[in-house]
Write a structure and sequence with these properties.
Elements: E1 13-17, E2 22-25, E3 37-44, E4 53-58, E5 64-67, E6 75-84, E7 95-98, E8 111-115, E9 120-123, E10 136-142, E11 150-152, E12 158-160, E13 165-167, E14 177-178, E15 180-185, E16 200-201, E17 210-217, E18 222-227, E19 240-244, E20 254-259, E21 263-265
Antiparallel strand pairs: 1-2, 2-5, 3-4, 3-6, 6-7, 8-9, 9-13, 10-11, 10-15, 12-13, 14-16, 17-18, 18-21, 19-20
Amino acid sequence: MAAIVPTEPGTPTRKSATEDSITIEWTAPTDDGGTDITDYHVWWDNGTGGSFVFLDTSMNLLEYYEAGPLDTGKTYRFKVYAENFINLGTESGIGSIIAATVPDPPVPAPTRVSSTKTSITISWTAPYNGGSPILGYKIFMNGGGISSTYTDVTNSGTLDNTLRTFTSATTLTTGLDYKFKVLAYNAVEDGNASTASDPIYSAIVPTAPQAVQKQTSTETSVTVEWTAPADIGGSPLTEYVVYSNGGGTSTTFSEVGRTDDLVLSF
């Protein structure tokens, strides 16, 4: 049976890329035409979006090719022909690939903006985009407390890609702490996630302590007492901070002590 030209190779795809280079790869034709493939011919549009021109020959039957230096963020189109001892075969499909990498992880880790007893709002800083505009972010949250399992919660809350904030669904357990991770993605694919946030509580600040009054006093000291707030905010109280105006008619108050009790002497 007489030999014929090869069938088309697989459509070129991105093997790797940097901001100024692209490495493409493809699969061999399903039919070499009955004689050995000698090399592959790589064509591209040089990032113009127009006609294809010959770029290079991939020798030694390597089914990949690196092109560069390229313009960061530009899309390049590639197609490949296999050649055997007869001639060039059929062209492959066209692969469109961006000269860019994935975005960096956001740094620093996400931080708390605000919280309620059943939801948390976080924010983060935009990372380097890898050479291609960031298209959005994905948010991951642990199960609360010491849980090390993170779940994609992007679609269960309210995400603002422009302001880079996320508010969780109002289904969190009051008083439990949660951790968050964020990743950015561009036209290449998802970047790596940030490190985890510090624990953030689904809680609010306590209301004011009540019935603040003098318990005892001497010529040089005062002991004050109070009762606990009507609402501790959903998270256990850690301490009370006591302020005094220093006496007289002064309207300036400064801190005079801290305690985990309901009484303080100063």
